[in-house]
Amino acid sequence: MSEVLNKATKKETFVTLFPETDNSHLTKDVGMIAYVMGKHYNYDSKIVAYNNGSYPYLEKELLGFNIEFIERVKGDPEVDGMYYLIDNAEKIDVLHLFHLNDRSLNWIKLFKKLNPQGKVYLKLDANMYITYEEFSDSKIDILKKCSLITVETKYLYDFLKRVLEVKVEYIPNGFYNFFESQKVQYEEKENFIITVGRIGLYLKANEILMEAFKLAEDKIKDWKLKIIGPVLNTFNPYIDQFFLDNPNLKDRIIFTGEIVSKKELEEEYRKAKIFCLTSRSESFGIVYVEAAKNGCFLLSSNVLPALDVTDNKKYGDIFGVDQIEELSKLIVKYTQDEERLKNNCEEIQKFAYSNFNWIDICNKIYNYINDENYSIINENCTNKEFKEVRRIIESGASKNNINDRGFIDRLKYNPEALKMSFWENHFELSCFDKYPEISGKILDFGCGSGNLDIYLARKGMFIHGIDLSEIGINIANYYKHKEVDEVKKRLCFTLNDVTKDVPKDLYDSAWSTNVFEHILYPGPIFEGLRKWIKPGGYILISVPLGYAYNDSNHVHHFMNNDELKVHLEKYIDVIKVDSDLNNKVIRALCRF
Is this structure's pTM higher than 0.90? Predict the structure, then answer.
């Protein structure tokens, strides 16, 4: 790929605008993306930043890379960045920015106004807080000006894919080989647990690792802990007190201080058998992949990247945030499992090189940016759908129909449940495998917004959903009309009262979930349903098992199978009753 690109006669400019860049940023994503895009993908690339001290990495690891320093005109990074863009926007082909914040949004607006043909790559560098973000129409309009938006973890990728009207791609952070090195052999490794970072930051929770090591120390006598990185002055009192209380650990917990040389740092990774990160929050720590490419077994707190970097715990394990005892047990477990550590050493290196190599990662970035057919618009976004659902609810609320109350409350208290994606893996979808009697042309009594019926129709089932809520039926039909024709043919949603309406055709079977706990006297309902279901047809009824006492809409509460059976058998033949304890529901298969 690089060889082909290097034949190009004109280099496009790739500019990472990040005023806070210091030397440590150069070997993280801030510096590495621009560096690799220049070295391997033929861009004239650079970082634009304040002069934040010395940059020794430019003299060795990133020799030849360019930083353009901007003046502190106002001393405000956002304003000074704007001054830079005013002077230079027309000379920038790709503007690379970080974070979903007002600063980035204002820079995007200004850049695209000054250079409409220029491209913007926004790297979100996001943690869990982005799930609380409000994506206003004005914010979405600005994001649509980007050519590429990426996020570092699969969890947030899946989340943003559902809620944003712009596409977000999954692009993790990576590692880069600044010098030639051989594959790590397990025999090189020693009994070291290491952690790497800025030591003493609250978010890094380094004290958790020290306390866990202390709990485990009598069971791991031949192991040492190395804590690598600059230590904050505010953390020194804790360290001093820790060693006063535990003088026996002074030779077993080693603080190396900052290791600037990437070669020296790599030697520490190569020697370590276990790498541990105790962070309280992470977007995607580069140290994960540096440890992985050097064959370390990974122990991580339960932060967003943990499952990604361990490949769902295949190459490591995960403990709760701030859980000292849990981490201590994992330390004991894996320090005593030599076979697991040895096998992991080779396999995690393969995993890292296949998934977290900056050269390959930047190849994906290059392809997205330069694909003329790539559109930033997300046609499958549920946020757009949700706006229409909200409009349906708000327009129907004025009618004050008591049967619509549930949807009005849901909009206020649980809006996620109004989206199709919320129901995609709902447990009720799998219950039909256990009840083959519910087949043929099926009636869903109390279908609500029809989400489950739509997923069942996608599987090939024929379903007619009825409800007393006009809002519910309108939402159901809105979602139905977004389906392909084959699914639409298998679905029908209508506003019906079974005690008054009579269908044109009878149904083979019926089902009803989370309905009968709301009905005080079900006798008339069953009499009405007999006019809808063929004689001898089955109905599957599902109700909550012993919860939701504070829900004033629930007039019945069923604590066990017998209570539901006794309640129903006055009106219909009850064939069998089963409890699903995992999902807290009781199901009754009945026959007309």
Answer: no
Lowest mean pLDDT among 61-70, 81-90, 551-560: 551-560
In this structure, the number of other CB atoms found within 10 A of the CB of residue 90 comes to: 12
Q: CATH number, domain at 154? A: 3.40.50.2000
Q: In this model, does residue 2 exceed pLDDT 60? A: no
- Give the SS3 label for residue 320: coil
Report the mean per-residue pLDDT for the chain: 92
According to DSSP, the residues that pair with 150 across neighbouring strands are: 123, 169
Is there a single domain that holds both residue 316 and residue 447?
A: no
Write the pLDDT tens digit of every residue in 112-132. 999 999 999 999 999 988 988
Q: Does the residue 34 lie in any domain?
A: yes
d(CA 330, CA 336): 10
CATH code (residue 464): 3.40.50.150
The token pair at 156 is 């947030």
How far, in Å, are 23, 27, 79, 484 from residue 70 at the CA level? 16, 21, 11, 54
Sheet with 94-98, side-by-side order of all strands:
67-69, 44-49, 13-17, 94-98, 119-123, 148-151, 169-170
Handedness of CA 352, 15, 12, 58 (dihedral sign): negative
**Residue range of the domain that includes 260:** 186-355
pLDDT value of position 132 = 84
Residues 426 and 528 in one domain: yes
Query: Long-range contact list for 52-60, CB < 8 A, 24+ apart?
Result: 52/20, 52/21, 52/22, 52/23, 53/22, 53/23, 54/23, 55/22, 55/23, 55/26, 56/23, 56/260, 57/23, 57/26, 57/27, 57/31, 57/260, 57/262, 58/26, 60/178
Q: Do 129 and 48 form a contact (C-beta atoms < 8 A)?
A: no
Task: Classify the C-alpha dihedral 549-554-555-560 as positive or negative.
Answer: negative
Could you identify the residue written with the tokens 């009878």? 506
Same domain assignment for residues 103 and 211: no
Greatest C-alpha distance within the chain: 86
| All residues at 6 or more sequence positions from 344 whose CB lies less than 8 Å from its CB, including other chains | 295, 297, 315, 316
- To which H or E segment does residue 13 belong? strand 13-17
Collect all residues with Cβ–Cβ distance below 8 Å to 447 and sequence separation of at least 6: 453, 465, 466, 467, 472, 473, 476, 493
Contacts of 221 (CB under 8 A, 6+ apart): none
pLDDT at 399: 83
Strand 585-591 to 533-544 pairing: antiparallel
3-state secondary structure at position 510? strand
Alpha helices per DSSP H over 274-376: 286-292, 306-309, 324-335, 338-355, 358-370
